[in-house]
Amino acid sequence: MERNQEEFGLLFARLDDLTARSAKGEVAISPFLSPRERHFAEGYLAKGGVRAISFGGIPNAERRRLYLLPEYIEIEDEENLSDALCDFGFASEISALRVRGSGYRALSHRDFLGSLLGLGLTRSVMGDILPCGEGQREAVVLCESGIVPFLLTHLERVGNDKVTLSLVDADELRTICPERRMTPISDTVASARLDCVVAALCRLSRERARECVERELVELNFEKETRPDRTVEVPAILSVRGVGRYRVISLAEKTKKGRLRLLAEKYE
Q: What does the buried/exposed string (b/e) look like for 110-145 if buried means 16 or more CB atoms within 10 Å of the residue's CB?
């Protein structure tokens, strides 16, 4: 906990402030958080008995904001958060901007992010950046609503290409944003040990998987794990540096040979 307090001290202090505001009847909203930040933020809030809903503007968004709700607002379904907040006179404060290049060159996620950061913005005011359309010449940028006027005025180029910006409403957003691609993985493992699971997910030998864990190349639920014999409890997020990130869904149902059936997905 001390290590987390040192790394996330500023975030935890911000959450304390948001908690106090929600206790006064406000909808208190965090900045956009990475999956790792959100994991520890939600754990911190849960220890204090504070309820929060995460929402990033679209279903399955990776970068999300946490919404700390006053007691009189009951919302269970995060996908309908925007509509539910409107019913109580609040807004999600997330906007979507479509950024289109001229068409003469492809634009990568890095191009869009680099141009946005080049304007002096921090990553915390931006959610997912979703390349869309044909030929990688445009993207939808999810961001805090408060920075939209600034972007409409100042974002003129992405990379070395001139761009145009337009607001995207909720209905259009559902049609143009691609679903996050996940590759299903099905295998069997001798046990739920971390090195066994890493070996199966990454198609490595057991010895090589153990080396990856011991060399601190593996994160289990966003924390470095150096014990090859650590038990993986599902659901879990598992990352292997240089290989990829996985969501472990199930480790159950023993086969006739006594092995466990592994069901997982790899983030693309």
A: ebbbebbeeeebeebebbbbbbbeeeebbbbbbbbe
Domain 94-176, CATH homologous superfamily name and number: RRM (RNA recognition motif) domain (3.30.70.330)
pLDDT in tens, 27-85: 999 999 999 999 999 999 999 999 899 999 988 889 999 999 998 888 876 777 888 88
CATH architecture of 182-267: Roll (3.10)
Looking at domain 2-87, its CATH class is: alpha beta
Whole-model pTM: value is: 0.81
Other Cβ atoms within 10 Å of 267 Cβ, number: 15
* Per-domain boundaries in the chain: 2-87, 94-176, 182-267
